[in-house]
Amino acid sequence: MNTIRIPDECQRSLTCIEADPLAPGREALAHLQTCPACAEARVWWLAQEDWTPALVPADYFEKLPRRVLGKLPAPRSRAPRRGAWVAAAAALMLCTAGAAFWAGRVNRSPLVEASLPKGPGESEPQPETPFRDRDEALVQLQSLSPDEAAALLKRLEQSESKP
């Protein structure tokens, strides 16, 4: 084990500091001004010294909340409560919106209507095309050449013969 050799002068100052760190003596104080290591050791000894804690008056902690509240500004006068009015307004809006919603649902026509299945001979009536002349189809037939008209008749006969 390695030991550190401390000079005799430092050893004597440390002994005086250990005995009384507040008043180590004249020789030790003279040495502390020249030796920074011993001055630091004295600071460490002073830091370890037991100091008596400050005493608090009786009932200090019991009276503390009241004293703190006394230093706060006085509370302002309370405004009238609006919570009840807000709740009543919200309930009225909810009732009105619900009634309007259900009234709208009652007056709606159904999206799907029931109907009977269609028979084999029934077909849906084709709606008339608005703004269309009924004679337009005849005009188109009359404008065909005789060869085109014959080809159209053949095609119609073939489509009628097919089931």
Description:
- The protein has 163 residues and is an all-alpha fold.
- 57% of the residues lie in helices and 0% in strands.
- It has helices at residues 8-19, 26-34, 36-48, 60-71, 83-106, 136-142, 146-161.
- It is elongated, with a radius of gyration of 56 Å.
- The chain starts with 7 loop residues before the first helix and ends with a helix.
Note the main attributes of this structure.
single chain; mainly alpha; 57% helix; 163 residues
Structural class: mainly alpha
Intertermini distance:
120 Å
What's the average pLDDT? 82
- What's the gyration radius in Å? 56 Å
Compute the number of helices. Answer: 7
Sequence stretches where pLDDT stays below 50 over 5 or more residues: none
Which overall shape is indicated by the principal axes computed on the Cα atoms? elongated
Strand content: under 5%
Total strands: the figure is: 0
Largest sheet: none
